[in-house]
Amino acid sequence: QSLDEEGRRAIAEEYATLTGLDADFVMINDLRVGPFRFMKRLLANERKIVGRMDGRLTGHDRDPAAAEPSTDPSLGGYYGLYAGAFNDYVRSKLGFESDLAYEVLSRRTRPWAATNDSMRSYSGGYLNVADDLERALNEIPGIRLFLANGIYDLATPWYGADYTIDQLDVPPEVRERITESYYAGGHMMYHVAEERVRIGEDIRRFIDPE
């Protein structure tokens, strides 16, 4: 709020150049456009919604006047495939039988159960496990970390992961054991055949650098 109008406008213009949004829309949103508003607004003139899990995919906006998107077009095509593949695997391979529906990213699985003291007060916002990661990196000898990032992922943006890693208080010799890789895909970057091969090669190299 300490910026004058000229400074805010300059940031909004740069923001618009980098994202494709309208600078006035960025200004109205106080220079902070959330992911759902981005999904809704970027291709609004074409009446399309941008995918959250994969920003390369778009879908028809059935309610263009709504404040938020009604669906994520990058997920709809996968729900049935994931559920079918899982149900077939657990029954044909593992011998597990159940009449319960397999929930894929369903609100019926909430609220999430807290797993440690730092999450006991979780109230539905963004979870932050950076402190746990920092503690593990500092306390477990020889621990190594591999991050796979999809550059079109709007749910867990790669620059958010980069920022988190940059803020970790770990010594240089520990930081050298952190590997960050980037793939031309979304949240499930392995959907792209070429990137799925790259991920496999990168993980094998990470596990056995020799």
Structure, described:
The model has no long low-confidence stretch (mean pLDDT 89). The chain is built from eight helices and four strands, in the order αααββααβααβα. It has helices spanning 5-19, 23-28, 35-41, 76-92, 130-139, 158-167, 172-175, 193-207, and strands spanning 48-50, 58-60, 145-150, 178-183. It has 210 residues and is mainly α.
Quick summary:
With 210 residues, the chain is mainly α. It is built from eight helices and four strands, in the order αααββααβααβα.
- Major beta-sheet overview: 2 strands, antiparallel
Q: Compute the number of helices.
A: 8
Structural class: mainly alpha
Report how far apart the termini are.
Answer: 52 Å
- Work out the number of β strands: 4
Report the uncertain regions: none
C-alpha-based Rg, rounded:
21 Å
Query: What is the arithmetic mean of pLDDT?
Result: 89
Question: Can you tell me the overall shape?
Answer: globular
N-to-C SSE series? HHHEEHHEHHEH
**Helix share bin:** 40-55%
Strand percentage lies at 5-15%
Topology:
Elements: H1 5-19, H2 23-28, H3 35-41, E1 48-50, E2 58-60, H4 76-92, H5 130-139, E3 145-150, H6 158-167, H7 172-175, E4 178-183, H8 193-207
Parallel strand pairs: 3-4
Antiparallel strand pairs: 1-2
